[in-house]
Amino acid sequence: RDLARDLHLMALFALQLALSPPQARLGSGSARAALRLRGGSGVTGGSLGRGGGSPAIDGEFDYIIVGGGAAGCVLANRLSADPAHRVLLIEAGGDASRDKRAQVPWAFTKLLRSEYDWDFHVEAEAAVNQQEVYLCRGKALGGSSVTNVMLYHRGSPADYDAWEEAGARGWGAKDVLPYYLRVEDYGDGASQYHAVGGHVSVQEVPYQNQLSATFLRAMGQLGFRPNGDFNDWSSPQEGYGRYKVTQRAGRRCTAADGYLAAARERANLVVVTGAQATRLALDSAYDGAGRLQVSGVEFARGDEREPCSVRLARGGEAVLCAGAVQTPHLLLLSGIGPAEHLREVGVPVRADLPGVGSGLQDHPAVVVSYESKKAVAATDDALLKGYASLVNPLALLRWLLFGRGPLACAACDHGGFVRSSPDLDQPDVQIRFVPARASSASGMNTLIELGRRARFLPGFSTQVVACRPRSEGRVRLRSADPFAKPIIEGIHLGAAEDVASLRHGIRLGRQVCAAAAFDEYRGEEVFPGAAVQSDEQIDEYIRSSVHSANALTSSCRMGDPSDPAAVLDSHLRVRGVGGLRVADASAMPRIIGGQTQAPTYMLAERAADILLHARLQAHEPATESVSQRLEVAAGAP
Fold this sequence. Notes:
Elements: H1 2-19, H2 29-35, E1 60-66, H3 70-79, E2 87-90, E3 120-122, E4 133-135, H4 157-165, H5 173-183, E5 184-186, E6 200-202, H6 210-221, E7 239-242, E8 247-248, E9 251-252, H7 255-260, E10 269-272, E11 275-283, E12 293-301, E13 306-320, H8 323-333, E14 336-337, H9 339-344, E15 351-352, E16 358-360, E17 364-372, H10 378-382, E18 383-384, E19 387-391, H11 393-402, E20 414-418, E21 429-434, H12 443-451, E22 459-466, E23 473-476, E24 487-489, H13 496-513, E25 522-527, H14 535-545, E26 547-548, E27 580-582, H15 597-618, H16 624-632
Parallel strand pairs: 1-2, 1-13, 2-10, 5-6, 13-27, 14-15
Antiparallel strand pairs: 3-4, 7-20, 8-9, 11-12, 12-13, 16-23, 17-22, 17-25, 17-26, 18-19, 20-21, 21-22, 23-24
Helix pairs in contact: 3-15, 5-15, 13-14
């Protein structure tokens, strides 16, 4: 019905265009503007991209935000809302807001290993059969909200109550819910667990492939419960359904689109892109009491890596929002971390904090994939003859005019959460259904090949994710060179429980695809392959093909003062260092059971209130609007 309606509207549009005078056709500026893809126009004072002019970075700043990802964009908006605060945002990447690859959801595969990707990898080790596991990390204003698959999950209330039990006081479920509501502009309207009017548009994908609809029927046939909203905390997370995504009218809604663009006219906000932070400036006498204190940030600017520095105003704070890899990396480069490791790489020790870089977590994933007897996959809908280089003109026109169709899809927006054992309190397995055939046992390799115009045959897949993993790894310096990529190790399959979760997920994925609903489509099993049946064979497949679901957290975690591995207190302050906080996914005590974009937004919103409340208490009256917002803020610690 949607397709018929869109064809009808397109026919009317074509007729109207044919009958319109020449100056009103698509060649005119106004007509082109009507169809132009939406993107942010930049930030006043900012240097957006490497080729444009650079803003003057004169004087001192009340807040220096390092990292322009999801958290950094939130904080840039909230902290600069008071014109009395001078705010600087430093981002190593560029501005992707006008890049079509960052606007069209289907085109995200072309961003993998592009200039907008840090392109990290996990070191080869025995747990993953000596393979290097690729990690996509966004390198642009908006960070990984530019490159991810847009899924919007909060996890469950128990995830946040566990944070509080781990020493993150004031971060329980009842405390964080108001900040989730502040983030959202929810497409289905306001309710107890959702809100409208926030900076991030949250909707269902305006496209449903028939194989995805078949997946829902198959899950029902197997007896699983339907779940219409995985973010409704009044009911269990378990079940199957359609996932919500960060889109507006079929277009990706990044943190830069939602938060940063809204602040672009503020004269007190300066945004600098192409600027990689290299070290925190530390002054042991800066606060007058001999306490170690951040006094500024050093960074390298542009392709020539011009050395620059900027200072904090007295009472100002640096806020690290560079992500779960780059935030500990910068701390280590600055001499804040495990003393023994810092000495090994020749970095002077300024603060011995053993937990910096440790506790790193990710969601490991594997794939079950089948041939399809019918050419009805998303790749068949979006592409001509299965080639990524030939986009279906009808699909393109539907997206341009109406924001619908397969190009609004980023593949895995249907799925569910299940427990591998009835003894578990929460789901440990997430199923993400993909209405396309895998070309590789590694799901990330399949996406990279799609972005590089590989040929795709009809099929369908379930990506199985260990959504509450036990494994923990770490970030370490490769050398004292700030431009050397860090060592990332140990984050996948170090815990036997994670392998068991994925093993159960593979067996479940096979059961789903063997359900009667798929009878008319199901061909041969491609991955793992029909010969892989025993636990030992499945485990070997898992270790050989595991890939990242791109949800890195917990490398500078909050915790109790008695926990020697905790880097932050519940106010997000780095222990033993004044004027320094961390406000990104690295601060999470543990990874949540779901994708981590939504909790990063929440954490940054709460961090903004913590920072503003601290300034209000310390020495400075805030403007009336900020004071009013702080009065109604939900329990800032």
